[in-house]
Amino acid sequence: MIKKILLTVSGLGHAEEMLKTLKEVPAIQQAEVTVLHVVPAQASAQVMTSKWEEGGKILGSAIETVNLDASKVTAILRQGDPKDVVCQVADEINADLIIMGSRGLKRLQSILANSVSQYVFQLSSRPMLLVKDDIYIKKIKRVMVAIDGTDATKQCLQLALFLVRDIKGGELILVHVDKNSSSKSSETATPAENNPVLAPAISEAKKQGVQPRVIATAGKPAEEICRLAQDQDVGLLIIGSPDRRPSIAKSFVDIDRLLSASLSDYVRVNATCPVLLARTVG
Fold first, then answer.
1. CA dist., res. 83 & res. 99, Å (int)
2. Is the model's pLDDT at 32 over the cut of 60?
3. Least confident interval from 121-135, 142-156, 258-272
4. Most buried residue, 2, 132, 200, 282, by CB count within 10 Å?
5. How far apart are CA 183 and CA 259, in angstroms?
6. For 115-124, b where at least 16 C-beta lie within 10 A, e where not — what string?
């Protein structure tokens, strides 16, 4: 399912560290990797030349850090607006996953600060793995998926199963937060086969040979998901974020989403682990 990965690097090392950890997952080890660094346009040719040389060193350092198989890695150095170039290259190579570093800025901040990761997520339909600057990247053993019964959930579940099923000692945690319940949060480690939202996901996991651990709780979904991800010490959190823009507007940033208090945006900013955002057409 993940055969082609686009790793965008800026020299900070966070995205590289994430890929190095992800490559330990058996299902990812044969994936082809494209490492991309984008050099923005500069005021003078002299500065441009310097930035171009610096970009080459950043690419070389990233490939060395991740210890990639030379036969399975392609290095690309491009000039342009990083937001546009990342999307273009992802389309060119038909990437199954984009890995990017993120400063974890809140919605309005990300607009004002011209956040590359936020804009790429808005414009690309491809799954993105965001790695904040201030998180600790741990070995992936526990993968948590937020389940809400949508098509986005189905894609998230398939991605999680693809990753978890071959991890020795790996664990899949399915979480459903009932935002309409007035009761206090309740969690259970017992598979909730009778829960209409969780039951299909549990059944699918078992079909693929994975016995999930299930947590059913109540409260504000975004906040609960972040809390549970930290409490359960997960190495990767996977959530869906449907694209509700009409087809004619796919090339434009979804400003409504940027400004709204969406679940995916809250989790992107507040989660204490790497977040894989699966974008689906709604």
1. 13
2. yes
3. 258-272
4. 132
5. 30
6. bbbbbbbbbb
- Helical spans, DSSP H, in the chain: 14-22, 45-66, 82-93, 107-112, 116-123, 151-164, 199-207, 221-231, 255-259, 263-270
Residue 219 CA: distances (Å) to CA of 149, 191, 216, 232: 17, 20, 10, 17
Q: What whole-number distance in Å separates Cα of residue 83 and Cα of residue 262?
A: 21
pTM, entire model? 0.85
- One fold for 4-132 and 142-281: yes
**Closest by alpha carbon to 142, among 263, 238, 278, 20?**
238
For tokens 């969406």, what's the residue? Answer: 262
Q: Where are the domains of the chain?
A: 4-132, 142-281
| CA–CA dist 65, 80 (Å, integer) | 25
Pick one of 3.40.50.620, 3.90.580.10, 3.30.1490.20, 3.40.50.300 as the CATH number of 142-281: 3.40.50.620
pLDDT digits (tens, 9 = 90+) for 232-281: 999 999 998 765 544 444 455 554 444 445 788 788 888 999 999 987 54
**pLDDT for the residue 183:** 54
- Rounded CA-CA distance 7/15 in Å is 7
> What are the Cα distances from residue 264, in Å, to 52, 68, 69, 267?
35, 31, 33, 5
Closest of 163, 134, 179 to residue 237, by C-alpha: 163
3-state class (DSSP) for residue 174? strand
Q: Look up residue 83 and give its two tokens.
A: 């937001």
Reported as a single tens digit per residue, the pLDDT across 177-196 is 988 765 544 454 444 667 88
